[in-house]
Write a structure and sequence with these properties.
Structural class: mainly alpha
Largest sheet: none
Shape: elongated
Number of strands: 0
Radius of gyration: 19 Å
């Protein structure tokens, strides 16, 4: 990226970007990904389409960044409770039950669009999947360094899959949204035993 491009992209303030992201999420909940257009975002946010394209490149990147921006908390680098169980619980507790329900509903709505749209899938991998995987990796490597988990534990590579599976299965099987209580008990009953980590 050239210095000129960076300068052009820097014109939108973080506060304005947050407003735009919230508007995008509102539109997603209202009409879904396929019916969401850059024209609609521009109208809702009183922006020009040229500004939106210059800042985000296209709808896929804008949607992915909006969803990523809506995720609570900071980096897992900030989570270090001294135990794997504590770290995983702290990770879950960054979102309250209302935020989890909204995020779950949003992700369900985007699931089909992600797999039918290569640009959206790539944007989601870059802005959501890979950062999430990296956060879990840092948590797990600290657990290995503390001696809580063996470095060759077969479950190490599947921790993210277990957590995502829990979120999806809660709605699919139980017809209930994921909650803090559900995920905390799931971590204790499934994730920690699979990793061979101490339960407390």
């Amino acid at each position: 990226m050239t210095a000129a491009t960076t300068a052009r992209r820097s014109r939108i303030t973080p506060e304005r970007a947050a407003e735009l992201y919230e508007a995008v999420l509102d539109l997603l909940r209202e009409v879904g990904y396929d019916a969401l257009t850059m024209d609609a975002v521009a109208a809702r946010t009183r922006s020009s389409k040229a500004t939106l394209y210059r800042q985000w490149g296209g709808k896929a990147e804008l949607v992915a960044k909006a969803v990523r921006h809506s995720k609570p908390g900071g980096s897992a680098d900030e989570i270090d409770t001294g135990s794997l169980r504590g770290d995983l619980h702290a990770f879950v507790l960054r979102s309250d039950d209302c935020e989890m329900e909204q995020s779950s509903a949003l992700m369900r709505g985007l699931a089909m669009a992600v797999h039918g749209n290569p640009d959206l899938l790539q944007a989601f991998r870059e802005h959501l999947i890979e950062p999430e995987t990296a956060e879990f990796s840092r948590i797990l490597h600290r657990a290995v360094a503390r001696g809580e988990v063996r470095a060759d534990s077969p479950a190490m590579d599947y921790t993210v899959h277990m957590m995502v599976g829990a979120l999806a299965a809660r709605t699919l099987i139980d017809e209930r949204p994921p909650t803090q209580a559900f995920l905390l008990s799931y971590i204790d009953a499934v994730v920690l035993p699979a990793l061979g980590a101490p339960p407390a």
